[in-house]
Structure formats: C-alpha cells, structure tokens
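Q: I'm writing up a methods section and want to include an example of the input and output format. Could you take the sequence below and give the corresponding predicted structure tokens, formatted cleanly so I can copy it straight into the document?
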Amino acid sequence: MQSSNTRLETEIIFDWIAAGSSVLDLGCGDGDLLYRLAKEKGCRVQGIEIEEEAIYRCVEKGLSVLHDDIDSGLPEYGDNSFDYVVLNQSFQQVKRPEAVLREALRVGRETIVSFPNFAYCSARFQMFFLGRTPVTPSLPHEWHDTPNLHFLSISDFTGFCSRRRIKVEQAAFAAGGRKVWLFPNLLASTGIFRISNGARGV
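A: Here is the clean output for your methods example:
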C-alpha cells in the first residue's frame, strides 16, 4: 500500500505530464504511473525495469516494459524520442546517476526526477542525536538492505543542476502527504523536479 507521501508524489508527476504525450519511465516498478497516464491521459508509454516480478505485474496491466539496467544507458533511443523521461525514486538507486541523467535528458525533451531528501529534519535529528543512519518515511530501509546507493539532499540536486546548466522548469516538495512550501531542504522528505537540458549537453 502506498504511503500518503508516495501518493502525493505520484499525483504531482501525473499532473505535470501533458495529455497525449510520450513517456519513458526508467525504473517503472509495477507500472502504476504508466497505467494511469495511458488510461486517463492517452499517453504513449514505455517502461524500463530490472526486477522481473515487477515486469510481470506491468505486463498484466498491458504495458510495454523492457527488462534492462538503466545504468547501461539508453542506446536504443534517439535524441528527443520522448516528451518526458521519468526517474521516480530511481535516481538515487543507480550506480552512475550523472550518466543516467545525461541519457534521460538526451532521450527526453523534459525529465522528471524525484528522490528522498537526506537532509530532511528527521534524518538530521537521527544522525546528530542518535548517531545512526536515518530511517524515515521516504528512507524506510535500514542501512544494510536499502536499495539506495546515493544519499542526496534537495540542495545537492539543485546545485548539481546549476553547475551543469540543467534548467529546473518546476519543483515541488512533500512531507507527510502534504506539499512543503518553505525551507524544503529542511522540511521536505521528498523533492520532485521537472528539468530540461538548457545547455543541450550535460
């Protein structure tokens, strides 16, 4: 069952994607977002997923999903093949996030990225006062079984984009199933960004 924060995050991404557009979801999981986009907005959708069980569930929904590792790049897709490329809670799980984002920006006219904010106040509290790797609603796994390979903050990501001349078209922040409007690097557990490659080359 999805948490309230995950539901809000999905709604934000769903709202950002225009009806009738083409969407590639990198690390699409069970395909719930793609299914909604196809059924409710008439989008042309494609997913890439590495977990076989998740792929089976996508196929049951009638979705087109490739079994692949997004760390290996997207050589089968040309430049601007899709209107949107989505990295929904998968960006921090890849081995080479910069290379993956470069490919996403090449293949998509816009890229939507969401990730847990490691600088969230609850995570800071646990690190500072308990001296432990934090466990929060957006970082629910213990250190030994987390799928996350990179722990970044909202400020880390905005700085990363600025240095590479990646344009932030839109941003939203969430915690506890509600949008966060002030001090997101401290008060938001999740960041969601819609970005484009203003420099045409990361």
